[in-house]
Amino acid sequence: MVHAVLDAVTKDVIERSKKTRETYLQRIDEAASKKPHRGMLACGNLAHGFAACSATEKADLAADKKANIAIISSYNDMLSAHQPFETFPAIIKEAATQAGGVAQFAGGVPAMCDGITQGQPGMDLSLFSRDVIAMSTAIGLSHNMFDAALYLGVCDKIVPGLLIGALSFGHLPSVFVPAGPMPSGLPNKEKVRIRQLYAEGKVGRDELLKAESESYHSPGTCTFYGTANSNQMMVEMMGLHLPGSSFINPNTPLRDALTAEAAKQVLKFTAMGDDYRPIGHVINEKAILNALIGLLATGGSTNHTIHLVAIARAAGVIINWDDFDRLSKVIPLLTRIYPNGSADVNHFNAAGGMGLLIRELSKHGLMHEDIITIGNDRGMKQYTQEPKLIDNQLVWEEGTEVSLDPTVVGSVEKPFASTGGLHLIKGNLGRGVSKISAVDPEHQVVEAPAAVFDDQNDVVDAFKRGELDRDVVVVLRFQGPKANGMPELHKVTPPLGVLMDRGFKVALITDGRMSGASGKVASAIHLSPECVDGSMLTKVRDGDLIRLNTQTGELNVLVDEDELNSRVACVMANTEHHYGCGRELFDSFRRAVSTAETGAINMFNNE
């Protein structure tokens, strides 16, 4: 039986989404009624579409004898998470042929790395790259040659963008194919220690680069639990990955077998067969809430308080931060993965991984089992199993029923916290979110004078000058999507961590982002309305007393209301971040973007 609060939230989301979901389903069902789309192409169109295929493939596609799989990939060989995808198309094409289908590489999408652009001009493009990826996905599929699609992506904006694009072709059955995490390197806690020493000037650049290189050292996804690995968790919780496939290392026989199996699996669900499973029906209200629940139960990335909202809206489903907050009160924290603990995702997978997490949540009615998935059993039943290679054959066996390391994966009876890792924050400074799963209880309530900045570099400079050596609430303004594309603000993380370690009470308040790597400092982020739209943050002055209580979700500047209202709002003075490094090309995005709580969307409208 589903938990009463989950049941209530689900009913609210379904009722709230009734009109938009109905409109969306009508559109994709109409597209499905025209199947297969190749049959509608003129001879010249079709000839262009399979000109590079073999003679056999041409005959099969011309006669609509076999299903054709589109491959949409984020491959590039500069980024470790995406480099393994280089070999995937060949594996997929061979597997599709063996299973009686055809596969074509339909298109690539851009994939930028926040780890490279942190604190750099390119980070101002990061959030908007999600929508570019969604549009690139649609372009790849727009030739109407396909009966199904495989999506190859991992990292921060890539998977949300692929999902949004896939949902615009919601009549196509779809499977998401991960690359897997790199093997474990330098422990994350040691990496953070070196970063803080560097921030204090106690080690040099050579020592810092050595530590970073030992942490990020090979092909595969970074192993800390940031947005990239939160993506993989959520996609599996929604039933779009093969069961247990999220955290299998790249360049291993098991990884390659799962990639081949994804091609065979998606062929089972095309409209040419009798078990049609289009992604637009797979991703419904319950699937979206499963992803949200997984985020809370694992202390996942705050970025998904934006991305999951946008993904849901692409499917005609309307969720908001109140839904996150209501569920957070009943979903316990079940994992300790860095930055919420010392383990990485390889350790999490070894301790029981996704199968154990899903088993725990299902057993206690804390997720929806009755969704359509791409598993053999249609629902979530198979997702407690784990894949194995036995005599070179891919099989699924029931996973562990108990944690193999209780310091990494807990249970509902013995959670790491009784509530989820994300809280809604509200008060006279607006609405935002806070991730407290990595913040020790003694640091979750901060009351201190404000230090106001409009650029994260200025925060770092003030720290170096010793001006922040005190109890302080750093207010970082004009960091929202309309102002500068809402870059992540991790440049301020090491200095604030140092201040906290020195015994000061420290917090960060901003209309910007911190993401899945949000660490041990209490924060209220994504504040809405953003400063460009008249946030009360623009009336905060240096020295104003601010109280942030992440436990109760309260954020207030302790200034007399009449005094606060009488102040003249500050306006954004610096527009240098609108130019250079390609940022001038995104002016239309900044002007059209919606709020953080509505997904920072620039495109579709199902209303």
From TrEMBL:
Pathway this chain belongs to: Carbohydrate metabolism; Entner-Doudoroff pathway
A GO term from the CC aspect: cytosol
UniProt binding sites for [4Fe-4S] cluster: C155, C222
Domain Dihydroxy-acid/6-phosphogluconate dehydratase C-terminal residue range list: 408-600
Biological-process GO terms, alphabetical: D-gluconate metabolic process; Entner-Doudoroff pathway through 6-phosphogluconate
Alphabetical UniProt keywords: 4Fe-4S, Carbohydrate metabolism, Gluconate utilization, Iron, Iron-sulfur, Lyase, Metal-binding
Catalytic activity: 6-phospho-D-gluconate = 2-dehydro-3-deoxy-6-phospho-D-gluconate + H2O
GO molecular function, one term: phosphogluconate dehydratase activity
Catalytic class of the enzyme: lyase
UniProt keyword Disulfide bond, yes or no: no
Cofactor note: Binds 1 [4Fe-4S] cluster.
Every Dihydroxy-acid/6-phosphogluconate dehydratase N-terminal domain range: 66-375
EC number(s) given by UniProt: 4.2.1.12
UniProt cross-references to InterPro entries, sorted A to Z: 6-phosphgluc_deHydtase, Dihydro-acid_dehy_C, DiOHA_6PGluconate_deHydtase_CS, ILV_EDD_C, ILV_EDD_N, IlvD/EDD_N
Gene3D superfamilies membership: IlvD/EDD C-terminal domain-like (3.50.30.80)
Known cofactor(s): [4Fe-4S] cluster
Keyword tRNA-binding (UniProt): no
Function of the molecule: Catalyzes the dehydration of 6-phospho-D-gluconate to 2-dehydro-3-deoxy-6-phospho-D-gluconate.
UniProt family annotation: Belongs to the IlvD/Edd family.
Protein name: Phosphogluconate dehydratase
Native source organism of the sequence: Methylophaga lonarensis MPL
Gene: edd
